[in-house]
What does this fold into?
Amino acid sequence: MTDSIERVLFTEEQVAARIAEVGTEISEKYRGRDVKLIGVLKGSIFFLTALARAITIPVKIDFLAISSFGGASKSASRGMVRIAKDLDEPIEDEDVLLVEDIVDTGLTTRYLLQTLAGRGPRSLGICTLLDRTVRRIVQVPVDFRCFEIPDRFVVGCGLDHKQLYRNLPFIAVLKPGTEESLATSASRKSIP
Ligand code: 5GP
It folds into this structure.
């Protein structure tokens, strides 16, 4: 599997250290309250698990899954998004943190924010492992971010290519030819 990797952007140690820092930031910001982490399946599960362990205040966890139609990927940049698996519990009056693997164009995150905001949480924030602001199409308020990344398709720490590489403990760029084309995804945008 590592034959397809061009370079490692962030090592396992760097990822762990940064998640620990962000966990501390979150614990301080929400001190005296509980925080509900909402993970977006499947990409955010590794990050959410590590993050939850790094947070020292009480944490609740719930998950949702999205799927796209009109495109080949779950990314909103490939087509329209809908919720394929909803949360198990309501979020009314809760301090909610949407936990993302990556915010790229921002379209998926914006859709999820709008959907969750309509359910009356006490607060609603965004925490992402990776942020690629260079490709942003819609502005979304990212409250906590571990790493800013360049304009290359990445895998590892939950992020996949054709469902593989999620279990890599580092963030890596794939060799040309094996990577997903970000340019292709950008040209197929279709969003409400
Ligand atoms: P957005 O709607 O922000 O453009 O897309 C967010 C989703 O696109 C992410 O949750 C992720 O599933 C997918 N995505 C965007 N960039 C990458 C990338 O570099 N690598 C992987 N594996 N997925 C990506």
Remarks:
- Residues 43, 74-77, 100-109, 153-155, 159-161 surround guanosine-5'-monophosphate (CB under 6 Å).
